[in-house]
Every structure is written in C-alpha cells, then in structure tokens.
Amino acid sequence: MALRNIRKYGDDLLRKKSRTVEKIDGRINTLLDDMLETMYENNGVGLAAPQVGILKRVVVIDIGEGPLFLINPEILETEGSYIDEEGCLSIPGEQGEVERPYRVKVKALNREGKEIIVEGEELLARALCHEIDHLNGILFVDKIISKEEE
Prior knowledge:
Layout lengths: L25 H16 L4 E3 L9 E4 L6 E12 L2 E5 L9 E5 L2 E7 L5 E7 H14 L8 E4 L3
Antiparallel strand pairs: 1-2, 2-3, 3-6, 4-5, 5-8, 6-7
C-alpha cells in the first residue's frame, strides 16, 4: 500500500466526471488499498478516486464500522433530509452546513466484482452522497447552506 497525494480545491481534475470501471483487476484493488491508507492517514471518513488524481468511479468509506469499497456506486433511493456540518480532505480547513438525505440506498460493485447494496443513515448516508458527488465533479462547497467561520 502507498499513500497518494490528495488533490486540492482549485485542481481542475476535481471538477471532471469520473469514468465507469469496466474491469476490476489488480490495479483497481491496489487503488482501493492506497485510497484507504491515504484516507486513514488524513483522518477522513471517505475518499473518492478523483481526489487522488484518478478519474474512475471508485470510493472508499469508513465511518468507524469498517471499510466499504464501492466501485461504480449509484444512488437508488433517498429518504428524508437533514443538515449537518461537512468538510473535505480536498478542501482542508473549510467546513459548512450541507443538506443531505437522511437515508440512502446505494448499489455498487465490491472489490470482487459482486453487486452489493449499501443502506445508510445520517453519517453513512452523508458520506455516500459526498463521495458519489466527487465522482460527478461536485464538491460540498457547491452545496453549503451556511459556512462555519474558523
């Protein structure tokens, strides 16, 4: 495993739409491992491949319940909404309140290529939406309702 450099706000790559992963191979699994290590090293709860310079639809998340590896994730359902503070490893020091669904249901492939369904509420729902936004070139600062001043 290796640490990857996290792209920072202002990098044009963060605004690009990621490509679908066609084949899950050793390179994708190495990317997943590197992303997880990079996320942990930076005290994050989620990381999307564009944040490490790779325009692939790949996400890792760990809200403290063990890592989730999601390839080609798609939101199937959302329910409710709530507002909470968000930050991003690509925008250090910046936080703001963002409205997200209270509950989401996501379909993705795991690292073995099997289809999985992940359902999450609150923080997991927020992390899923935040990271899937990254795959579409959307950053949380685009959705801030009110900004927290440091």
